[in-house]
């Protein structure tokens, strides 16, 4: 019997072991975090709004957005946003934004919405933000969505 015929049954399992070994090595390598925002640069002034939300139900999703709004009270530009998970208790938040991109002489508002299973259930009435300084907004109360 030829030597290549004797080794033939072992070729496929050997190839599979090599592939599995390679895939395990690759999954153990550290990977770089994927980000979709530009990292802050040395000249960028990052400021923040912080406070807490009252009345957020457990198992809900909260999105807060800092928006530049026009005269018709419609959003013109998103300055920053953050997503949080409701716990059924007071929910603290920190919303960071680039102070250099804060519009002067324009209306800026913090707005929020609470959803559960994709359905809007509550909202945060608009909170006026008049300057790009760090600010504590204190406790903010949510209202039922119409």
Explain how this protein is built.
- This protein is an alpha+beta fold and 146 residues long.
- The protein has one helix and eight strands; from the N terminus they run H-E-E-E-E-E-E-E-E.
- The protein has a domain at 47-144: Immunoglobulin-like (Sandwich).
- It is 18% helix and 45% strand.
- Strand 2 and strand 3 (75-85) form a beta hairpin.
- It is globular, with a radius of gyration of 26 Å.
- Residues 15-20 and 22-40 have low confidence and may be disordered.
H/E topology pattern: HEEEEEEEE
Please provide the count of β strands: 8
User: Helical element count?
Assistant: 1
Q: What percentage of the residues does DSSP assign to strands (E)?
A: over 45%
How are strands sequenced across the largest beta sheet? 3-2-5-6-8
The largest β sheet comes out as: 5 strands, antiparallel
Tell me roughly what share of residues is in helical segments.
10-25%
Q: How does the helix and strand content classify structurally?
A: alpha+beta
- Mean model confidence by pLDDT: 80
| N- to C-terminal distance | 83 Å
Proper CATH architecture of the domain at 47-144: Sandwich
CATH class of the domain at 47-144: Mainly Beta
Shape: globular
Give me the Rg, rounded. 26 Å
| CATH level-3 fold name of the domain at 47-144 | Immunoglobulin-like
- What oligomeric state do the depicted chains represent? single chain
Low-confidence stretches: 15-20, 22-40
